[in-house]
Amino acid sequence: MNGLGFKVDRVLRGIDAASRLGLRVKINTVVQRGVNDGELLELAAYFRERRLPLRFIEFMDVGNTNHWRQDQVVPAREVVDRLSAQWPLEPVGPAYRGEVAARYRYQDGGGEIGLISSVTEPFCRDCHRARLSADGRLFTCLFAALGWDVLGALRAGADDAELDRYLARVWQGRRDRYSDERAEVLASGDIRPKAEMSYLGG
After folding, report:
1. Which residues of the chain register pLDDT less than 50?
2. Using DSSP, how many helices (H) and how many strands (E) does the chain show?
3. Which of 191, 71, 174 is nearest to 125 (CA)?
4. How many domains does the chain divide into?
5. Looking at residue 67, what is its pLDDT?
6. Do 20 and 114 reside in the same domain of the chain?
7. CA 41, CA 166: separation in Å to the nearest integer?
8. 49 and 62 co-located in one domain
9. Are 63 and 194 in contact (CB under 8 A)?
10. Rounded CA gap, 36 and 198, in Å?
């Protein structure tokens, strides 16, 4: 699904190598109906065996080029139901306030999964995430079009205290609620430009 023809066996070898070296590895996978939703059990079994946490992410309309369609979204609840039918799951509380993944553990001790359900269960009201692009722009939402020029502030001579105040103003003034507003935006035909995931850093 990487669009580059990159072979999955190389990715899996890299994951195994990282695990052997003792790195903390977590697997993120976007689930798309008609593309990989038929492989959920196989994927879960593979990472259960390796005791690696697996995160299922609803297909989101990030950027403008991924050809997102609502009918390709597999709701997180469906993923839980399908996996739980094979290996019963139970919910686990968040590891920290604002954690975006809803966590579940296998009742047989086979590890855990998480679900990021930005489409069917938006979490805008408790989101505390921001991304800093490689060219120094701060984005307060994954679905934003424009970022704040942090690098420009630094180049203009902002010291640590001034930078703290600048970032505090940005954060306190943010009004990002795209996931909450998605249905209304799509129904209105309002096509908002959004930064691409590759630009935001994954």
Report:
1. none
2. 7, 8
3. 174
4. 2
5. 87
6. yes
7. 47
8. yes
9. yes
10. 21
